[in-house]
Amino acid sequence: PALDYESSLTRAAAQSCLDIVCVSAALVHAGSGDIATMKRLRTLHGVNANRSYGNHMASHMALGILFLGGGARFTISRSTQSIALLVVALFPRFPQHYTDNCEHLQAWRHLWALCVVPRCLVVRDVRTGQMCRDAVVVLHSENRQTSVVPPVPFPEMDCVQSIRVSAPGYMALSLDVSLGSHTRDLVSRRRVLYLQPQTPAPMHGIAVLSQFTEWLTSTQMRANVLCTQLMQPHSVNDAVDSSVVHAIRRLRICVLAMHSPFVARNSCVSGWAEEAYLAWLNVRTRVVALARHDEIRRLLTRYWTGNQPNTQLSDMRASYATIALLYAVLDLPAPSDAMKLAQQ
User: Fold this and answer.
1) How much is the pLDDT for 84?
2) In the sheet where 162-166 sits, what is the strand order?
3) Over pLDDT 70: what percentage of the chain?
4) Which of 52, 72, 95, 174 is least crowded, fewest Cβ atoms below 10 Å from its Cβ?
């Protein structure tokens, strides 16, 4: 304990330095879940008469940064905007109590969340969607090449020029992610690579082209029937069949996978991709037309504004079904985007 003013000042300075070291160490290992760093931070967690509210805030922020997304999924960006936000959020003057906003506004401490970017690179089977456990990813840069086994934290895109993925039983995949390439932007946003199996697909499910075409036709018909039913929301008396939404989501995944630049394809896959894309355009056009229907637009407006005190059960079912369809075909990040589409 500090017995005089000078000792108390020294202890406060040491605590401030310790807070800065904790946050700095967490930033270096951001999103990695480093065990050694976690052990050091755990010793600072808990009730202690000599630690203030600001000291606990610093240690808790450090733990949150260290385990972003549960570990190995996200990290802190190194962009100019992110650095500016980190300077504001991690200003090294922490409050003495929860109402202390004299030296730094506590709400600004949350700005570091805007600097979080995805970092986990995953390799999946394009046919099943399962993770390829035996895949090896080779990252080529100017001076060296690095071999890693996914899922793995992906480095900054500025440090990588090309990527090569190989796995037993799959076609090898090579990607050019140099500056200015379209593939670079896709990899940085999705962080998922798909591999095409070398062996032919088993003859069951929708693997046969005729069965695949039949499934596409069935999905289009069911989507058209559901949209026609939702055009008259007051007549929706029964629960809407959710399997239609699942089928549309599956169709969307097929189209994305077949037209992805990460998939090695042959003539057979190209034929399937054309059939799937045409079916997808039909379904998407039908759902977008539904969203622009006057009655549906009024239902969505009441739903997202919360102004539905006397809404009938049929209208609520129609609203939920329409929202599910919009999310299935458009992959909307926020409901406001669906409102903008419906208002066009």
Assistant:
1) 92
2) 145-148, 136-140, 162-166, 173-176
3) 78
4) 174
The sign of the dihedral angle between the CA atoms of 42, 46, 50, 53 is: positive
pLDDT of residue 311: 59
Helix %, strand %, coil % for the chain, to 5? 55, 10, 35
> What is the reported pLDDT for 204?
43
* Nearest CA among 257, 119, 136, 137 for reference residue 188: 119
Q: Which of 201, 227, 213, 199 is nearest to 293 (CA)?
A: 227
pLDDT tier at 262 (50, 70, 90 boundaries)? very low
- Over residues 211-249, the pLDDT tens digits come to 777 888 888 888 888 888 777 766 665 666 778 888 888
Of 296, 311, 304, the residue nearest 334 (C-alpha): 304
* Residue in the structure block whose two tokens are 């060296």: 144
Three-state DSSP string of 75-142: EECCCHHHHHHHHHHCCCCCCCCCCCCCCCCHHHHHHHHHHEEECEEEEEECCCCCECCCCEEEEECC
DSSP 274-322: HHHHHHHHHHHHHHHHHHTSHHHHHHHHHHHHT--TT--HHHHHHHHHH
249: its two tokens: 């989501």
Q: Which two tokens stand for residue 238?
A: 């029964």
Answer left, alpha or beta for residue 202, where phi above 0 means left and psi between -120 and 50 means alpha.
beta
Helix (H, G, I), strand (E, B) or coil at 171: coil
Query: 68-102: buried (b, 16+ CB within 10 Å) or exposed (e) per residue?
Result: beeebbbbbbeeeebeebbeebbeeebbeeeeeee
**pLDDT, averaged across the chain:** 76
Buried b (16+ CB within 10 A) or exposed e, 17-32: eebeebbebbbebbbb
Spatial distance between the Cα atoms of 69 and 118, rounded to a whole number of angstroms: 9
Helix axis angle for 267-291 and 294-305, nearest 10°, is 80
Residues in the chain, total: 344
Cβ atoms of 73 and 30 within 8 Å: the answer is no
